[in-house]
Design goal:
Number of strands: 3
Strand content: 5-15%
Helix content: 55-70%
Number of helices: 5
Structural class: alpha+beta
Distance between the termini: 39 Å
Oligomer: single chain
Strand order of the largest sheet: 1-3-2
Length: about 100
């Protein structure tokens, strides 16, 4: 039987990488408005920034900033149609979080 010390520093690296990824995700979800945005996106196929701003009670710029953070974390995807930007959940990971 090997102990964690016997496995060396190389075995700890993937765990450290995942821990940093999890911490970044938790920071994103630590904001109540971002969770509200995710929940509203999850119940619909797609939703526009203006619809989300109205439903959550944020300004358009504030909503866009929150959505940018969620997009950078890989939780949502955006599609531009004319002047409107439509958001949807990016993958099943996002749905499982909710």
């Amino acid at each position: 039987m090997t102990s964690p010390d016997d496995q060396g520093e190389g075995a700890a690296r993937p765990l450290a990488d995942h821990a940093e990824e999890a911490a970044a995700l938790m920071r994103q979800l630590g904001n109540g408005k971002r969770i509200q945005l995710l929940c509203r996106i999850a119940v619909r196929e797609e939703v526009t920034v203006s619809e989300l701003a109205h439903e959550v009670g944020l300004s358009m710029p504030a909503t866009s900033q929150h959505l940018k953070s969620l997009r950078n974390e890989g939780l949502v995807a955006a599609r531009r149609q004319g002047v409107e930007v439509h958001y949807r959940l990016r993958d099943e990971r996002s749905r499982r979080l909710l």
